[in-house]
Amino acid sequence: MKDKIIKKATDMFLKLGFKSVTMDDIACEMCISKKTIYKYFSNKEKLIEEGTEVIHQKIHALMDEVVARNYNAIEENFEMRQMFKEMFQSFDHSPAYQLKKHYPEIYEKMMANEIEDCNHMFTQNVFKGIKQGLYRPEVEVEVAARFYYILIFSINENTQLESEAYEIEGKALEYHTRAIATTEGIKELEKQLSKNLNII
């Protein structure tokens, strides 16, 4: 039952907003008593906290799947972008923006985990691109990865509409890639931009 509550509540939070959904709404939607929810979660904040952890785990499982397909480094980033589009395209408001605005403590805790994981993934992507001749060998890997994830997180936490955040993220991906790409990397970037015109 606990997992069912987390799943339903998280779906509602993402679609309707973390602030606007009440425990009563969740109980009504699930046709259970509010007492049943409180049996597992002492308050709404605890439910949101556990829900964001589930989202975190789901995102990173999907990211691992993309990496496992062994795309080249630039294509990998575009595939990640497509994965995020499919996951969040049905939501009007940016989940990160909502969480930071209404539940900053939960947001900060979530971001600490996200930064660690994304730093690892982006760093590996830069190393991979250098090895493939798509990124310049003199690139400072840790700095490039850090610049990129700070840029992406800043967009998400400061942009209210999910569609707008997604569009700006596309520009950030192009900006990041052009900053570190070789001539071959630029060719691959242009190929991906043409291929993904509908998702940039």
Query: What is the makeup of the main sheet?
Result: none
Per DSSP, what share of the residues sits in E-state strands of 2 or more residues? under 5%
Tell me the radius of gyration.
19 Å
Please, how many domains?
1
Question: Stretches where pLDDT falls below 50 for ≥5 residues?
Answer: none
Regarding quaternary structure, how should these chains be classified? single chain
Q: Looking at CATH, which topology would you report?
A: Tetracycline Repressor, domain 2
What is the approximate shape? elongated
Mean pLDDT: 89
List keywords for this structure.
about 200 residues, mainly alpha, Tetracycline Repressor, domain 2
Structure description:
The chain is mainly α and 200 residues long. It has a single domain (49-195), classed as Tetracycline Repressor, domain 2. It has helices spanning 2-16, 23-30, 34-40, 44-68, 73-88, 95-102, 104-131, 141-158, 162-180, 183-195. Helix 1 crosses helix 4 (44-68). It is elongated, with a radius of gyration of 19 Å.
Question: Could you give a quick summary of the protein structure above?
Answer:
This protein has 200 residues and is an all-alpha fold. It is built from ten helices and no strands.
Fold blueprint:
Blueprint: H1 2-16, H2 23-30, H3 34-40, H4 44-68, H5 73-88, H6 95-102, H7 104-131, H8 141-158, H9 162-180, H10 183-195
